[in-house]
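Researcher: Sequence recovery benchmark, item below. Answer with residues only.
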């Protein structure tokens, strides 16, 4: 038996207004693949995954345009404004911070490559200067 993603579990519990029996039945349906409850649970799972992928795609797709800190702050504030509970806050903050970290690492790698190329160019210019 496969267990659903933690976000799916949280979403199922929230959609059933924290009524544990209903949420458990829905989760069983998801895990065991029974009739209508399974379709409903799969729909919830698909919704969570599509929302997560959309947000992650937006962040990764726009990470090149977020060169200054204020753009990242605006994105962070906008995403935090749309959250409904602390688990959402943690999840979105983690995702945003991971995207920010990836962006910083990518930019530092690019900078290191540029510095290496500039050093090589400087060496060539110095060599040409010595010849003259």
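Model:
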């Amino acid at each position: 038996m496969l267990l659903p993603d933690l976000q799916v579990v949280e979403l199922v519990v929230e959609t059933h207004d924290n009524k544990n029996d209903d949420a458990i039945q829905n989760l069983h349906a998801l895990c065991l693949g029974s009739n209508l409850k399974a379709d409903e649970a799969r729909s919830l799972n698909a919704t969570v995954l599509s929302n997560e992928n959309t947000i992650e795609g937006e962040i990764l797709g726009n990470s090149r345009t977020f060169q200054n800190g204020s753009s990242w702050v605006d994105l962070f504030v906008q995403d935090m404004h749309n959250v409904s509970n602390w688990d959402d806050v943690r999840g979105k903050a983690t995702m945003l911070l991971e995207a920010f970290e990836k962006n910083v690492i990518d930019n530092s790698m690019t900078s290191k490559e540029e510095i290496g190329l500039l050093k090589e160019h400087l060496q060539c210019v110095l060599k040409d200067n010595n010849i003259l």
